[in-house]
Amino acid sequence: MLRRLFDLVYAPLAFAVFMLVLPLVCITVIATPGAALRREVGRLGVRLLLGSIGVPLFVRGRRHLPATPALVVCNHASYLDGLVLTAALPRRFTFMVQDGAAGWPLAGWTLKRMGVEFVDRGNARSAAALTRTLIRRMSEGESFVIFPEGTFKAGPGLLPFKNGAFMIAARAGAPVVPAGVRGTRRLYGGGNRLPRWSPVTVELEAALHPDGSAHAAQQLRDSARAVVLRLCGEPDRAPAEATAEPAD
């Protein structure tokens, strides 16, 4: 009863604060010179945003992040996951997201200014070009965060992983760091019109390395998914949801 009463009071207040602070963070990022500094401003801005609505962020396992370029792969449970990972990871990490996000008012411009790569999963030629671009950027020292489920649903559960991220890691010889995010589904997951208070945890585990074999991408995908499934604490939706998909 008390929790429901708290949620009723918290939800509209948190939403109002969120909608006030987020545009200010976006505008500050857009106006900041230099990609590295923009990402640092974004990291601090997200931490300010979460703090302003009373949400604690716990990050565990940062020691597992390699000093070399790497791919972090994480479960996807909420619209806030990208923001949370921005705050949790060093500024050398940026994201690969669906191309539709590029058209979001204000947020799309902010993502572009932070060096995010946009992918059109329905366009094979575009996906191939993006793979080459990511490999080049990783060779120049950048690291990426990818949500290999490609989307999220309102109900809890880890969806099947798409192949694209792991093909990039195998071709680039880059380590893959499995990560799990918890708490964002309750905070502002699919189907929620207003936020509900929840602490948020990001946990990273030891990097997985491609072995150079012909099946390296598939092995990375399966191994990473097993770790992410354990870290995220949600049920496995692959047996019911999985279908035969072409490689991204």
TrEMBL record:
Keywords: Acyltransferase, Lipid biosynthesis, Lipid metabolism, Membrane, Phospholipid biosynthesis, Phospholipid metabolism, Transferase, Transmembrane, Transmembrane helix
Pathway: Lipid metabolism; Phospholipid metabolism; CDP-diacylglycerol biosynthesis; CDP-diacylglycerol from sn-glycerol 3-phosphate: step 2/3
Enzyme Commission number: 2.3.1.51
GO terms for cellular component: membrane
Organism domain of life: Bacteria
InterPro entries named in the record: AGP_acyltrans (IPR004552), Plipid/glycerol_acylTrfase (IPR002123)
Catalyzed reaction equations: a 1-acyl-sn-glycero-3-phosphate + an acyl-CoA = a 1,2-diacyl-sn-glycero-3-phosphate + CoA
The Phospholipid/glycerol acyltransferase domain, residue ranges: 70-184
GO BP field: CDP-diacylglycerol biosynthetic process; phosphatidic acid biosynthetic process
Ranges annotated as spanning the membrane: 12-35
GO terms, molecular function: 1-acylglycerol-3-phosphate O-acyltransferase activity
Coiled-coil features, chain-numbered ranges: none
Name of one Pfam family that matches: Acyltransferase
NCBIfam families: AGP_acyltrn
Domain notes: The HXXXXD motif is essential for acyltransferase activity and may constitute the binding site for the phosphate moiety of the glycerol-3-phosphate.
PANTHER family noted in UniProt: 1-ACYL-SN-GLYCEROL-3-PHOSPHATE ACYLTRANSFERASE (PTHR10434)
Annotated family: Belongs to the 1-acyl-sn-glycerol-3-phosphate acyltransferase family.
Protein name as it appears in the record: 1-acyl-sn-glycerol-3-phosphate acyltransferase
Protein species of origin: Solimonas fluminis
Lineage of origin: Bacteria, Pseudomonadati, Pseudomonadota, Gammaproteobacteria, Nevskiales
